[in-house]
From TrEMBL:
Name this protein carries in UniProt: 6-phosphogluconate dehydrogenase
GO MF: NAD binding; NADP binding; oxidoreductase activity
Top-level taxon in the UniProt lineage: Bacteria
Organism: Ciceribacter naphthalenivorans
Residue intervals of the 3-hydroxyisobutyrate dehydrogenase-like NAD-binding domain: 167-285
Pfam families, per the entry: NAD_binding_11, NAD_binding_2
Active site: 173
Gene Ontology biological-process entries: organic acid catabolic process
Entry's family note: Belongs to the HIBADH-related family.
Keywords: NAD, Oxidoreductase
InterPro entries: 3-OH-isobutyrate_DH-rel_CS (IPR002204), 6-PGluconate_DH-like_C_sf (IPR008927), 6PGD_dom2 (IPR013328), 6PGDH_NADP-bd (IPR006115), HIBADH-like_NADP-bd (IPR029154), HIBADH-related (IPR015815), NAD(P)-bd_dom_sf (IPR036291)
Positions of the 6-phosphogluconate dehydrogenase NADP-binding domain: 3-162
Length: 290
């Protein structure tokens, strides 16, 4: 059993922290900006809530963060009363936010100056993956730190990989988002075409999902897409945040991402349709609007 802090009890963090307590059996202290969520968490799982990230992190062996973007992450780690100011030497900061590789390197340096370790550890698997404790976790950092952190991370994960040095976890998550962007647009176009052709879409998907075109998105989203329902997971606003990180990194490393850049613009159009909180399969709504 370890002493663990969890900062950021959103859609993802709330159940992830819950698994650290119930499945991992750890002594968990939580912090959330909106204190009511932290109180609700303690009522549901036990453990304790702290008033600041620094207070939550004090005396902990592992400190998890799962907030929105780079700036949110800076605020809860190196900002006023940030986690790092409360962490003891030897403790490890594990960040599950989807953020840039740059901020990961920045935080690794700040952690090192305090005698602490850092692992960037963004996740994939969505709300359902977090609730069921079966996330995929893509880590960047030193092997020795990873070996210490892995058994703790295991409480909310099905797959945990060390991808390379600090930043490699975030870079891997970027590849994940690149692959999803093009795929969802392809699926949206397929469904759009199928409807225009007057085919029975359920029948079409039943057959082609067993062939080379099959995908998780096809299996899990075709039905709701066909019904024009877009309330099933990862929001367009979050995807745009992620694609912005991806495209910035691509400008740095020289990768050509023409389809990803185009799909990012399409998501911009979905936002203009009022789809900020719709899930990423809402690319179809944009096609049907025309
Ligand atoms: N949702 C998904 O399916 C999914 C999947 C994979 C990865 N992710 C990534 O995981 C991260 C969290 O996503 P989520 O869906 O859990 O988001 P969310 O439900 O919006 O929760 C965000 C959490 O961060 C806190 N927060 C945000 N800005 C903050 C700040 N400046 N200071 C302090 N706390 C702050 C929020 O506190 P309040 O409660 O006070 O607002 C909340 O606890 C994001 O980077 C997202 O891209 C999400």
């Amino acid at each position: 059993m370890a002493k663990v802090a969890f900062i950021g009890l959103g859609v993802m963090g709330y159940p992830m922290a819950g698994h650290l307590k119930t499945k991992g059996g750890h002594d968990v202290t939580v912090y959330n900006r909106t204190a009511a969520k932290a109180e609700k968490w303690v009522f549901e799982f036990g453990g304790q809530a702290a008033a600041t990230p620094a207070e939550a992190a004090s005396d902990c062996d592992f400190v998890f963060t799962c907030v929105g973007n780079d700036d949110d992450l800076r605020s809860v780690t190196i900002g006023e009363n940030g986690a790092l100011s409360g962490m003891k030497p030897g403790a490890i900061l594990i960040d599950n936010t989807t953020a840039s590789a740059e901020v990961a390197r920045e935080l690794a340096e700040a952690a090192s100056a305090k005698g602490c370790g850092f692992i960037d550890a963004p996740v994939s698997g969505g709300q359902a993956g977090a609730e069921n404790g079966v996330l995929t976790v893509m880590c960047g950092g030193d092997l020795a730190l990873f070996d210490k952190a892995r058994p703790v991370i295991d409480a909310f994960a099905r797959m945990v990989g060390l991808m390379g040095p600090v930043g490699a976890g975030q870079l891997t998550k970027m590849i994940n988002q690149i692959c999803i962007a093009g795929l969802v647009q392809g699926l949206a176009e397929g469904i759009h075409f199928g409807k225009k052709a007057g085919l029975d879409l359920e029948k079409v998907i039943e057959v082609i999902s067993k062939g080379a075109a099959g995908s998780w998105q096809m299996e899990n989203r075709h039905k709701t897409m066909n019904e024009g329902k877009y309330e099933f997971g990862f929001a367009v606003d979050w995807m745009r945040k992620d694609l912005d990180i991806v495209l910035s990194e691509a400008r740095r490393n020289g990768a050509a991402l023409p389809v990803t850049a185009l799909v990012d613009q399409f998501y911009g159009e979905v936002q203009k349709l009022g789809g900020n909180r719709w899930d990423t399969s809402s690319l179809l709504a944009r096609l049907e609007k025309k």
